[in-house]
Amino acid sequence: YSQLAMDSIIAGLSALTGFAALQLANYYGPVSCLCPPLGAVAVLLSCHPKSPASETKTVIGAHVIAGLVGYAVVRSGFANYAEAIAVVLTVTAMSATKMV
């Protein structure tokens, strides 16, 4: 096999292992763990593990920022534009804190 094929297989198995663990935690645990951003994180961690965006502080920090901003926007009552406002504020905060 070529190096690209082996890297692709390892990346896929890595993503499979991570999402299987999350699915088990989701099924047996009291907290829902699956959300769309985890797909992007899986690509980063599996395919580009040495990328600055794959660093632990960046992955965790970005999720904390997104969660706090999302919660604040929902609590503020911007019902019609909540998604757009949350995305704009999250991207701005992540950029300002160098979590991208």
What would you say this structure looks like, in words?
This protein is mainly α. It has four helices and no strands. α3 (56-76) runs antiparallel to α4 (82-96). It is globular. It starts with a helix and ends with a helix. The model has no long low-confidence stretch (mean pLDDT 83).
Topology order in helix (H) and strand (E) letters = HHHH
Largest beta-sheet characterization: none
Strand content: under 5%
State the helix count. 4
- Name the poorly predicted regions: none
Q: Structural class per helix/strand content?
A: mainly alpha
Span of the ends, CA to CA: 34 Å
Name the overall outline: globular
- Please estimate the helix content: over 70%
What is the number of beta strands?
Answer: 0
> Please, what is the average pLDDT?
83
Q: Rg to the nearest angstrom?
A: 16 Å
Quick description:
The protein has 100 residues and is mainly alpha-helical. Helices cover 73% and strands 0% of the residues.
Write the layout of secondary structure elements.
Blueprint: H1 3-28, H2 37-47, H3 56-76, H4 82-96
Key traits:
globular; mainly alpha; 100 residues
